[in-house]
């Protein structure tokens, strides 16, 4: 894998003229330009199916999505094209719902381990060499503009919406990437934000957007309302699969999600301008152009959220749809999200872990890996080379100060570098033999994700650090602290393969 | 639209508008309804646990008259 840089300024590449001069670090075998390309690639890898029978919008689509994603390792994306009452409409769900699908996206074998994909992404994330490859095409050339609706807009007429969980307050766009600009610095491309927020429809051409002040768009909404400036957004539906991963990634305020996604893929990404002035993916399926209704709030929720519980009813900002552009026969991409492990977790697990690793590694090269897969990092495991007794606690505290750590990292488990943080059996071993009850830190009344049901009050609660690293001076290391040398390495791996072959031969 | 469906299953409000009808071969299969009082939206073909007041979990009832119960997520500048 060549190293692919990410932290560079974005260059506009008009008509692709500069593409040849950029050290394209393409390792993904085939260019993925759109959701359609990816669904095709998934299908070729037997990771995408089309549901053969007619389905009712509820509860069939929810049930099938859950059944498919219960196979976290190998479940397929599911396309529905026979939804009762939505003739001709298509819905895709579970596109990122298994590790096999994530592996296909990263150009790796379907059986790639999470750990392998994590290290692949860290190399792509922090590497040096190429630049993000973004090129712009004219709006009239963009596939997303094949069809456009500006009058009598009814989103239900275009999008086959279904209720995601049974007590949701309405029909949600759960996997929409929202593009917005800084109201006070609208020309700065890097301050343009792309984020996934839950959007609830309120009638045919209105939707609410749930955000909080710490989200980029939350800041932008507050500024727009304070200044009484128009605030326009573009809601992209059915997106390039890398944008779906990065729109939920905690980047700094002035870092572009488009640039990161392109650098991660090592492939060009084609953008265009929406008619209301935002940069959007030219090959996205549907773009909803909308404007904030300044100062208006509407009852929003509940919504079955990623902690596995419903977030309550709140009063949220309201947007008015001004136009919709879409491809012919657009594919609406949805997501199932709820209790336990869902597509939400495979979608953003790695792109949550890697930025935390990247920030920590800059200051603590001892950090080896970060597993923040669990529910947007509400629980994370960090492995490091321990330097001295208590060192891991300092690293843990630094992790809480990373952009994502501020609110999301709630339970942190620190382990040594001889423990694979992606192997929970090994983590449990470290907890069993290396944790002293006095090696935990409870940080009371810290900021928390408002929808965390374990909060003391919404948005505030306690964080936990468990230091499960080995004892080093000045710790009292004890008289019998000598580890067993467990046989490992290539020889053992060859033996494992041989044993598997013998097992399979025996079954024939 | 039946009488039962014309009231909101969540707040019992009667200001309900129809947003869309799903059709096949000209026949209406279902309607999407929206409560202008509490913002609940539903499809009249959904399982009764979601759309019939008596079968819904009352925990999820909403009373728009008790508006202070529902926090404002981004308080607008006065």
Major sheet of chain B: order of its strands? Answer: 1-2-3
**Distance between termini of chain A?**
38 Å
What structural category characterises the helix and strand content of chain A?
alpha+beta
Largest sheet of chain B: 3 strands, antiparallel
**Low-confidence segments of chain B:** none
Q: For the terminal residues of chain B, how far apart are their CA atoms?
A: 41 Å
How helix-rich are the residues of chain B, as a percent range? under 10%
Mean pLDDT of chain B: 92
Count of helical segments of chain A?
A: 12
Please state the structural category of chain B. Answer: mainly beta
Q: Which term fits the overall shape of chain B?
A: globular
Largest interface comes to: A-B, 48 and 37 residues
- Beta-strand level of the residues of chain B, as a percent range? 25-35%
Q: What is the string of helix and strand elements of chain B?
A: EEEH
Question: What can you see in these coordinates?
Answer:
The complex is a heterodimer of chains A (508) and B (78). Chain A is α+β, with helices and mostly antiparallel strands and 508 residues long. Chain A contains twelve helices and 24 strands. Chain A has helices at 35-44, 60-69, 99-105, 114-126, 155-158, 216-227, 241-246, 257-265, 343-363, 391-399, 424-434, 490-507, and strands spanning 13-14, 48-50, 77-80, 90-93, 134-136, 147-149, 172-173, 177-180, 193-196, 199-201, 206-209, 232-237, 269-273, 279-281, 286-300, 303-304, 310-311, 314-326, 331-334, 367-374, 379-384, 411-416, 440-447, 460-467. In chain A, strands 6, 7, 8, 9, 10, 11, 12, 15 and 18 form a nine-stranded antiparallel β-sheet that branches. In chain A, helix 10 (391-399) links the parallel strand 21 (379-384) and strand 22 (411-416). Chain A starts with 12 loop residues before the first strand and ends with a helix. In chain B, strand 2 and strand 3 (41-43) form a beta hairpin. Chain B is globular. Chain A binds chain B through residues 56-59, 84-87, 154, 156-157, 163, 166-167, 169-171, 200-204, 208, 210-213, 218, 221-222, 225-226, 294-295, 297-300, 302, 310, 312-317, 450, 458, and chain B through 10, 17, 19-24, 29-30, 32, 34, 38-43, 45-47, 49-50, 56-57, 60, 62, 64, 67, 69-74, 76-77.
